[in-house]
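Case study 2.
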Amino acid sequence: MKQATEFAQLLRSLDGQKYGAYKRLKGMYQFRQFRLAIDHAQVDPYAPPSKMRVIMNRETANIPDNLLDSKNKIVAVSDFLARTFKESIESLKHNDKHAKSARNISIDR
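Prediction:
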């Protein structure tokens, strides 16, 4: 697994490169409190969008064990996290300062 510093270096090296170079981003990167998994990198403007995941342990996310002790609770917590992320994205899109950088961020249903 690569470290966050390697991810930052790779991003800098890709600046100004063609879309195809972004394939080099694929992989797992360790940050201080989470891991970033880049499962697919968009290789041209018309290709399917990039797919990424953030992986964080429950203790870091402060999700109590008793909220994940049944299938229904796991679904409810997952739904809450997905909706909260979506609302945060929408909030960024409406903030002029971040609108351009956030306009293409989305979350799968």
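The chain has a mean pLDDT of 89.
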